[in-house]
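Input record (one chain):
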Amino acid sequence: MRQLFEKRTTSSNILPLFALATFGLNLVTLFLLMFHGSLLSQLKRQAPPRLVQLDDGSAIAVEKKEYDERTPNTVRRFVGESMTLMLTWSEKMPPESIWIESQALVSEDFRENFPKKIEESTLSDAFSSNLRNTQTVLIVKRIDQPQEIKDGKWQVDILANFLLVGSSDNLGKAVPFNKRIVVQVVDPPKEPLEVNSSVNRASYRLRAAGLEIAQICELDEKDCS
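The corresponding structure, as predicted from the sequence alone:
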């Protein structure tokens, strides 16, 4: 009887120790998993650039980004080059032709209103002259840092001058063009380029950034989204 009592006492003493050891083991395992997860996250952020081979045979190193992420410089460059392309006209290349060939840079919802926005702005002098013997070009002075509106969408303030140069006016006339441009993420073009005009080629190259213009507003407008 005494031996049976001692065995029960020993078993009752071992059970709490066993439970405590099991809990400690699980806790250590949890910490290890958390530690490994943080290491993997750091390795993912520190992953070396990937080498991408282009169709023309050249290769570039690229950094992996999420689908709706763009660097500030990518957004600023897209805004500056896209607006310069669409607002540089001549008698041989009037705005209507430019806009048709570069319309892929503008979202479908905004394409119809894009020319109206330009015509209603301070560029009305350019349209009143019908661009006869006149060349125009957008001279960018400053492009501010993009402000993220939501995931995959930014607003960028651009300060520029719309320069009109006529055959009788070599100095030209500068019209201020200070606007707020909203850009958003879009799928880059996948189809090969078919039309080989200079404007179309430039538009295709810019669209490869996976961005498009969604809205143009005045700088003092509160809601430009």
